[in-house]
Structures are given as structure tokens and as C-alpha cells.
Amino acid sequence: MSEASSGHLPVSWGTLYDWAAKRCPPGQGRLLCGPLNRGGGEPPAGQAGAMDLGFGGEVADFYHQYRRGYPPAVFDTLAGVFGLTSDDIVIDLGCGTGQLTLPLAARVRAVAAVEPEPDMLARARRAAAAQSLTNVAWLLGTDTDMPALAALLGGQLAGAVTIGQALHWMGYRELFPALAPLLRAGGGVAVITNGTPLWLQDSAWSQALRGFLEQWLDTTLTGACGTDEASQQRYRDTMTAAGFEVTDASFEYTDELDLDHLIGGLYSAMRPPPPDQRGAFAEQVRRAVAPHERFTEPVLVMMLLGRPR
User: How confident is the model at residue 73 (pLDDT cuts 50, 70, 90)?
Assistant: First the structure.
């Protein structure tokens, strides 16, 4: 395991697992949020031992290059609702390659960025260095490591815990009660989604893409990675039951994708085909979506904002 972070939490992988554990035919990839997601957010009990989450190696590079960041309104909302200032610490749980972490680090005193995949942490750390951000602690860990993180903070309390497009990987029923003791007065937890998966949208090009992927993977794609209404309601109810007062915010905008970003976005969410097969894969995608020349994507960013009562 590579030394990707400035600190390691004692890793317990039980609540994170590879949603796409179904093996595809030789030479084909598998979506990391799709076939076995079951609509979002209910990992099966008893998943123990180290899990290959599938975001290592070059997938981390695709993730960094093709996963969009969050609009400024998200960070303005976090600052307004939780009163974040330059004196605060923020915990970014499931930080990926830093889509939330890096803009937050520019606004607060420090960010503790927690991620179970070493290669994602390494890529995020390089991005922080490129922006001359030195106030992020990169920590290898999972949602079950919050007690260890509390000990690491040594009594300091966080202004916020952010979970961006990652809660569907976590044991959130156990997580939310564990987060309240980490928060200062007025602080809170933000669960943020950043658009529906490329293959589950209502547009003609997305439907064509889904049809191709379902044939290629030989499975039905239904998992919405926590962006669906049922998952959002389940998260809200669980936060409320854990003692949080929950409000919400949402923002919509439109993005234009080209074929390169469409394929790159897929590679950030799947195990890519072997390099010598990627040209053929890209050509098949191109043919599937060719009748739909413009790939316009409506992006709905949703935030669940919980403060302890």
C-alpha cells in the first residue's frame, strides 16, 4: 500500500464495499456505482476484511480529470449555514481527489480529508500541492474511523463534516450518531450529491448510453449512487433520528459534454477496458450516442444540512 497521506487512521473496511462486485466477461469493465447499488446506500451486513473499492490506479486519474467540482454556491451555503470561518476545521469524509476538500481548504484553517483509497489520496495531495495548499491532512480511513479521528483531533471540534457524493458507500445509520460529538456549537453535517450518473438521465443520449452499457455489461443499471429521491429521504430520516435538525438546499445548472468527457466520465466510474481495447470501446460508445450530437447534461446539486439539536 502506497504512502499517500500525511497520516493513517486505523482502517476498518467493514462498511465500505465494492458495489460492483459482479465480474463482467473478460475484457469488459464494471461500473463502480451501478449494477449492484440497489438504488443507493444500504451496504449488506457482515462485509469484513480489506475491500478493493476499484478506485485505485489510473481510475483515480480519470476521476480527478473528469469528475466535475462543485459550484461556488455550495461553499457559500456551507459557510452560511454552519458559520464557517478561517478559524475552523472541516472534515471531508470520502474526499476522493479533493473536489470538496481543496475549495474548502481555501476558506478554513484546516481540512482533515479522509479517503479509503490510497491512490485517490495521492492524486488529491498532488492537486493540493499544485495550488500551494498546505493546510490539508490527508488521512487513509473510512467512515468507521470517526472515533479514531476524534482522538487525533485532541479535543478540537469541527465546524462541519462534509460527505460529497460518497454516502452510498458508507454505513450511514451508524455514522450520523458518531459525527455529532465531533462538531462545535453551530456546526453540522452536509451530505452533498453532484448530479445523476451519466447513464441514468432522462435525455436521449443518456438513454442510448445506458442501453449500450447494459448490453455491454449484460446487466440492468439502476443504482443512482444516492441521488434518487428514496435515498435522499432515507438519509434525511436517518439524520433526524440521530438528533440532527435537517434543512436542504439545491442548485441547478447545465453542462455541455463532448465525447472525450463522456468516455472519461465512464472510466472514472468503472474499471476501464485494457488499453488495447479502449479504442474499440470508445468507438462503440460513439456509435451508440451518434444520433444525439449535443450532450447537454442538467446537473442537480443537492445538499442535506444537519445541525445537532
Answer: very high
- Give the count of alpha carbons within 13 A of 92, CB side only: 28
Instruction: Quote the pTM value.
Output: 0.84
Q: From the CB of residue 279, how many other CB atoms can be counted at a distance below 10 Å?
A: 10
Across the range 48-64, mean pLDDT stands at 69
DSSP letters, 36-96, are: T-TTS--PPTT--S----S--THHHHHHHHHS----HHHHHHHHHHHT--TT-EEEEET-T
Residue 143 CA to residue 170 CA, distance in Å, equals 6
Distance from CA of residue 250 to its chain's centroid? 17
Confidence band for 144, pLDDT divided at 50, 70 and 90: very high
Cα(287)–Cα(308) distance, integer angstroms: 51
Q: How far apart are CA 59 and CA 57, in angstroms?
A: 5
Domains of the chain, start order:
7-308 (3.40.50.150)
Using the predicted structure, report yes or no on whether residue 95 has a pLDDT greater than 70.
yes
| SS3 category, 257 | strand
CA–CA dist 300, 276 (Å, integer): 35
- Per-residue pLDDT, averaged over 189-199, amounts to 95
